[in-house]
Structures are given as structure tokens and as C-alpha cells.
């Protein structure tokens, strides 16, 4: 009798397992379609890239689980409607990403369509006052850096298999080296990946300067305010330092449901459970940055001001006119990764930090904020670069001058700030995702410093 029951159960679970596998395959394909829609939309409308460039850069050497589907999917670009759709399964609505001025592309949820989703836009009164054109950075090239810059592009000297798309070196406020790959120029934005976290940290600094949020107070995440919720103790500073104590059933650096699945920040990030006492464990997590800005939105309590603040009070004041700060479809910034900007705009951000948070005589960041973000505090990762507050900090083992800190992102995005030499080193790239073939920014920065001298 027992054998008959076991056989019956086995027969029952075979189709269930097959059904579950089919559901998993369908979901991965939907995510791959979302990846293609999102990156094609941003690269087309933010950056003006051609379909061939998008295929060879944005959609090449990406996460392994999406590669096969990406080879078979085809994006449909509506230039008049400024959106991209990707069919992935018969009978299912296509995955869609739609572009907005300054806010770039927002991805609709799986099953969503443009006719049923009201996407957030910057108010017309705000966009009407956006700066026009670009204020050039001073340029005085130093030929001694030419061999190093050439080596950065050879895919060997600073990392086998690396693919550099841009190098920019700024010293004492002047561009001393600059080069871009074919099809890219000084005005071509690329996705920053996690360099966006440092931009998010800067936005939080601007908000703190204006008394819109207290970084050392408990994060104003509304879902955590019920009596007895242990997450009430998590501060915004702990979110900025990746020491929230939160966990998730996925790797901290993978929030694919938000990035390519169209899941809203509000539907995912606030629900992560607390595993460790806040401030006791370092865990690099996209959700921590997303939650810090999500809390800022609720602290401000005005969506118009929340959406406008980063532009009116930071990027436009710095002249970062080629920068797009993307949101989800419900209006939360996805500033853990989804920012598109140029090397020159990143230089402007770096110059703000070299100037102690002051720009054109106006203090944008609180006094002491540069030290705050560039000082490791609390639990730290076991690597040569330590972590401050949304910025990485060079440890002794890097061989870089004391006080060096950096914004770093996937696929080889770097903004290295070296206050001791009044120096910025910026590298953009399309390195492989998930493979140990990246660009060695530490060695490159050391070589730049050695070549320039004191």
C-alpha cells in the first residue's frame, strides 16, 4: 500500500515540477525582455546610441541567465512615442519601457501597458527652467598621460577582457586627459550602475543641508512605523553605510525584480526582514540605497518636490545637463543603479567634493559632509577598499594617498577622488558582468598619480 501511495505521489509531482520549471523559464524570459526594453530605451533616448551599438555594448556580456534569451528577442522602438517594447511570449503583453524628459526611462511591470500606467513626469514648470547647453570644463591636456590612456583601452594592461569606453582625468580643475571609444563622445551618457549610489548619497546630503531629513535619525520608511517593528531602529546613515542589518532571499547586489522586472521600489524594498542588529554587519545591498531615498520621499511629503530636488538643487546647479535620474513606474528614484551620465558630468560631481561641497560660492552640502561620506565607520567589507557612506574609501593596501575615495559601479564605472593631489580619475566601461575580468582602477590611478607627480 505504501509503495502505491509513493508511486502515486511521484506521478503527481512530475507534472508539478515540470509546471514549476516552465513558470521559472517564463519568468526569466520576461525578465530578459525587460532587460532589453529598459537598456534599449535608455541607450536610445538618453544617449542616442544606434541599434548596433546597443547590441554590442548594452546587451553584450550581461548576466549569464539572460544571454540566450537576449540573442533571440527583438526590441521595437517607437521614436515618435519614445518607448520600447519587447515581445517575449505569445499571448502576453510585451515588456515596455517609456522615456520621460530628464527622468529617462521607466519600465512598466510585467503585464503592464502604456494605456493603463500613469508614469511620473517632472512638472512643466520645472522642466521649463532646466539649463540649456553645457558649460565647458577647462581643458589643458598633459601629453605625459597619453601612454597610460592608450593602455587603458587595450583590454590587457589594466584587466584582461576589460572594455574601456571613456577615460577622463581632471587635475586642479582642468581636464588633463580625455579619450572615448568609437561611437561615444564627451556628451554621450552611459549607465552608471552603482556609481549612482554616490549620487544618491549626494542628494541625501543636499536634503540634509536643507533640513529635509536627519541622516542620523531613524529612516522615515512608513512601512516600518508599526509598533513593535524592529526596523524602526534603522537610521538613514546605516542605510548609506550598508549596515542596516536587513537581508533578502537574493544577493544584495541583485535587485533584478526592480531593475528589469518592473517591480516598484515600494512593492519590494520595504518588505525585507531584519536579520542583524542595525549597525553590526556590513552587507552591500541595492535595497539600502533605494530605502534611503524612499524614506526621503516620505520625509519631504511632496512628490513634486521630491522629483525636482535632485535636478534643481544638485545636478543642474553643477551643470550636469547630460544626466538622467531614472525612476520606477510609481515615481521612486532607482538611484542605486539607474542613472545615465557622462564622464564630464561625473567630473563635476567630483569637483563638488574637492571643493568641500561648495559650488560657485554656494554651499550645497553640509559642513563636514565630505568627511562623513569618505570615512569608514562601523562594520567593513573584507577587501582593500573600505566603505564610507555611499562611497568606497581607499584602504592602506591600495597604495593610494590617504583620503582617497571613490564611486564605483558594475561593468567598470569609476569616479576616483584624490584630494591630496586635487585629482579626479574617471573611467567608463563595458566590462563583462559577473566575471573576474574587470578594469584595475586602483593600479590605473596609482600610475596616473606617479606620472603627474606632485
Automatic annotation (TrEMBL):
- Which keywords has UniProt assigned to this entry? Hydrolase, Signal
> Does the keyword Zinc-finger belong to this entry?
no
Which positions make up the signal peptide?
1-20
What Pfam families does the annotation carry?
Beta-lactamase
- InterPro entries annotated for this entry? Beta-lactam-related (IPR001466), Beta-lactam/transpept-like (IPR012338), Diverse_Enzym_Activities (IPR050789)
Q: Does the keyword Hydrolase apply?
A: yes
Supply one GO molecular-function term: hydrolase activity
Q: Where is the Beta-lactamase-related domain?
A: 166-426
Q: Which PANTHER family is this protein grouped with?
A: BETA-LACTAMASE-RELATED, BETA-LACTAMASE-RELATED DOMAIN-CONTAINING PROTEIN
This chain's protein is named Serine hydrolase
| Native organism | Pacificimonas flava
Amino acid at each position: 500500500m505504501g509503495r502505491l501511495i509513493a508511486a502515486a505521489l511521484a506521478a503527481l509531482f512530475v507534472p508539478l515540477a515540470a509546471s514549476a520549471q516552465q513558470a521559472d523559464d517564463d519568468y526569466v524570459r520576461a525578465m530578459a525582455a525587460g532587460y532589453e526594453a529598459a537598456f534599449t530605451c535608455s541607450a536610445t533616448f538618453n544617449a542616442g546610441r544606434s541599434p548596433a551599438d546597443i547590441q554590442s555594448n548594452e546587451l553584450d556580456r550581461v548576466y549569464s541567465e539572460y544571454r540566450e534569451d537576449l540573442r533571440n528577442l527583438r526590441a521595437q522602438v517607437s521614436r515618435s512615442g519614445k518607448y520600447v517594447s519587447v515581445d517575449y511570449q505569445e499571448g502576453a503583453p510585451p515588456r515596455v519601457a517609456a522615456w520621460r524628459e530628464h527622468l529617462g526611462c521607466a519600465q512598466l511591470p510585467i503585464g503592464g501597458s502604456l494605456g493603463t500606467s500613469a508614469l511620473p513626469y517632472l512638472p512643466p514648470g520645472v522642466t521649463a527652467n532646466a539649463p540649456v547647453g553645457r558649460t565647458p570644463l577647462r581643458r589643458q591636456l598633459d601629453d605625459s598621460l597619453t601612454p597610460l590612456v592608450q593602455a587603458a583601452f587595450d583590454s590587457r594592461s589594466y584587466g584582461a577582457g576589460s572594455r574601456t569606453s571613456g577615460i577622463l582625468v581632471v587635475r586642479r580643475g582642468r581636464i588633463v586627459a580625455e579619450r572615448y571609444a568609437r561611437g561615444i563622445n564627451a556628451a554621450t551618457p552611459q549607465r552608471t550602475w552603482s556609481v549612482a549610489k554616490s549620487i544618491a548619497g549626494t542628494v541625501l546630503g543636499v536634503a540634509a543641508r536643507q533640513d529635509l531629513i536627519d541622516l542620523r535619525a531613524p529612516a522615515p520608511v512608513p512601512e516600518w512605523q508599526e509598533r513593535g517593528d524592529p526596523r524602526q531602529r534603522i537610521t538613514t546613515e546605516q542605510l548609506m553605510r550598508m549596515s542596516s542589518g536587513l537581508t533578502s532571499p537574493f544577493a544584495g547586489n541583485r535587485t533584478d525584480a526592480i531593475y528589469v522586472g518592473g517591480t516598484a521600489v515600494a512593492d519590494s524594498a520595504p518588505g525585507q526582514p531584519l536579520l542583524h542588529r542595525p549597525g553590526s554587519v556590513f552587507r552591500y545591498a541595492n535595497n539600502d540605497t533605494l530605502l534611503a531615498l524612499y524614506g526621503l520621499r516620505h520625509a519631504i511629503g511632496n512628490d513634486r518636490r521630491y522629483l525636482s530636488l535632485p535636478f534643481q538643487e544638485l545636478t543642474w546647479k553643477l551643470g550636469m545637463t547630460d544626466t538622467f535620474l531614472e525612476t520606477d513606474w510609481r515615481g521612486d528614484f532607482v538611484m542605486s543603479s539607474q542613472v545615465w551620465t557622462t564622464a564630464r558630468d561625473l567630473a563635476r560631481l567630483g569637483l563638488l567634493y574637492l571643493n568641500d561641497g561648495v559650488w560657485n560660492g554656494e554651499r550645497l552640502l553640509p559642513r563636514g559632509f565630505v568627511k562623513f561620506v569618505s570615512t569608514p565607520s562601523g562594520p567593513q567589507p573584507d577587501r582593500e577598499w573600505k566603505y564610507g557612506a555611499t562611497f568606497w574609501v581607499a584602504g592602506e593596501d591600495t597604495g593610494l594617498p590617504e583620503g582617497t575615495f571613490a564611486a564605483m559601479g558594475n561593468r567598470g564605472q569609476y569616479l576616483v577622488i584624490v584630494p591630496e593631489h586635487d585629482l579626479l580619475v574617471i573611467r567608463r566601461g563595458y566590462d563583462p558582468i559577473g566575471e573576474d575580468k574587470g578594469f584595475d582602477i586602483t593600479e590605473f590611478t596609482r600610475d596616473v598619480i606617479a606620472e603627474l607627480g606632485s
